[in-house]
Batch of 2 targets.
Target 1
Amino acid sequence: MSSEPRIDTALSPRYAQLPTFMRMPAATDPRGRDAVVIGAPYDGGTSYRPGARFGPRAIRAESVLLHGVGVERGPGVLDLLDVVDAGDLDLSPFAMENAIDEATTALTALYEHNRAILMLGGDHSLTLAALRAAHREHGPLAVIHLDAHSDTYPPVYGGRYHHGTPFRHAIDEGLVQPQKMVQIGIRGHTPNPGSLSFARDRGVVIVTMDDFDELGTAGIKRLLLEHTTGQPVYVSIDVDAADPAYAPGTGTPAPGGLTSREILALIKVVGDLQPVGFDIVEVSPAYDHAGITSLLAAEIGAELLYQYARSLDAVPATPALTVDHDSSPGRNNR
Ligand code: MN
Ligand code: MN
């Protein structure tokens, strides 16, 4: 629990005040925190629909509805973790190499002074910066990656970096252990089938949607436990892993994806692992409707923070299975 006072929802309605993520305290230079939420407003790596630079704002705006306390949860995540919203990275909108370098430097500094980071994208190219920063702190990482695309594409249009390539660079740079990397939700059309071979040849486990239909949520949770237990794990979630019916507001939508419920069920395994970093990327609000994509991204972020608390054994052994509806709103609904 952070030392700063939180907004009391019993006194201030959830649509009021500056919208930090989940209305958590803001801190521009956080130190000694369990987790830091940071926006990465950048979309210079998008190959189709742009607009993910506005993702962090839209995700924060929808996140004010999330109390953290939940029916399956007992205590709220803001009662369990010292977590703050550190605002946004200031990234060059023009030069991709500059943006990735700026993000790497800033995220590395955040890791030096805090335990974990939740990055709100922005397009997926910034995950390379997050992996570089997390690797400096933790060494080669296991990865859980939800996405319609494997993002192991080679350079394209003369650009070395783009939103389809972060995991190829991460493998080439030795930031991740490809045999301890699981990609879930891969499907649809690809201009470069060799990019899947690139990943598979190095040991990456690719769970296509056909595989998902075979294995189900429980089977994939077992697979994740088998491949990533005992390793520092980075969790990267491209919102286009969800079907466009659940996440229309994104740059390269692909029908036939996961439901919101399947994603939220899957990531509950994260608390049984050793997660060290998280991102939720590729929300493009201009293509969204009624905020459903941003709200899903916010819910995923909230769930990841709760799972992080679980991984730190910060959640009481027997959390309440039901919310006490008679308790004071000022106590539970902040
Ligand atoms: Mn994608
Ligand atoms: Mn992606």
Note: The chain has a mean pLDDT of 93.
Target 2
Amino acid sequence: MPKAKITAVAGYVPEKILSNSDLEKIMDTNDEWIRTRTGIVERRVMAEDEAVSHMGEKVVAQILEKSGTAPEEIELLICATCTGDYILPDTANNICYKSGLTKAFGFDINAACSGFVFALYTASQFIQTGRYKKIIVIGGEKMTSYMNYEDRTTSILFGDGGGGVLLEPDEEYGVIDAILKGDGYGCQLLKVEAGGSLYPMNQERLDAKKNFVTQDGRQVFRRAVNGMSSTIKEVMERNNLTADEISWVVPHQANERIINAVGDALDFPKERIMLNIAKYGNTSAGTIPLCLWEYEDQLKKGDNVILTAFGGGFTWGSLYLKWAY
Ligand code: UT7
């Protein structure tokens, strides 16, 4: 069976910066608390008239240019997001339309912060069948649309942005294995309560600010450390990999302390764990492609790479791939 190898990476963040000192001016917080508790220094904010499809369009354009691919060669586009342009329709189809991917079909995957890992593994199955040869996987968000800037425990964490990859078949390199997990117990611990079919938006819910992300930070923190480290261990064992053989761990960027705890649990040196949370905060499904984009020059052909994520749902998992270029 062919493997799905990554042949191009792209990323996009909006220009506008929201720094910790900007937040100090609008809520009871301070730069020192945010830095030491989360590792975040600033995050990006999309313009009011910009959303996930605009990010996706820019990412697709970069991917096509870098890989010398014509738009009509793309057969499928999967967009991992929990902040798509609309509740209906999906965002992937709109990205295909805006990008001139006239031969592609598209669909969204909502696995919150684990979305990119879930979407990448889903896309890799389409390649493994031998039926699909060129697939784009995007992960990205406009999280700031769902931030209550009166809630200092959550709004300081999230930002906007994302990235994507092109997948093509290969005999040797690419996605090798993944362990993906879920536990609906987490449903109430990290959510946007209103605006869906259970609690459609109305004035009362708007007044109660039910249109924003809320979470139980401490529980999410504990579960994230455990979920990411246990699935990394499991995927390493299943593939007979030692820590020395892993070139890079690409963790979801939710909190630098979570990332450090995962690294410590697995005895991975910090130099081999991708980190850019200081600049972008938590962009949910966007964090992993943004890391790959920023570290692309440091990745080498044949590198063993493990992507790992944890998010709302709860959803979590780790994916093992061999870098192809
Ligand atoms: O991708 C999944 C999405 N979510 C996450 O990954 C979140 C995971 N959780 C976390 O990252 C952390 O739990 C937080 C960053 C949300 C909070 O950090 P913490 O170390 O768990 O802090 P805490 O909630 O235990 O709060 C400690 C103190 C509290 O004050 P008291 O009760 O000790 O007086 C908070 O009120 O820090 C206070 N606090 C703040 N102070 C200044 C909470 N938020 C802030 C803030 N600025 N922004």
Note: The two ends are 20 Å apart (CA to CA).
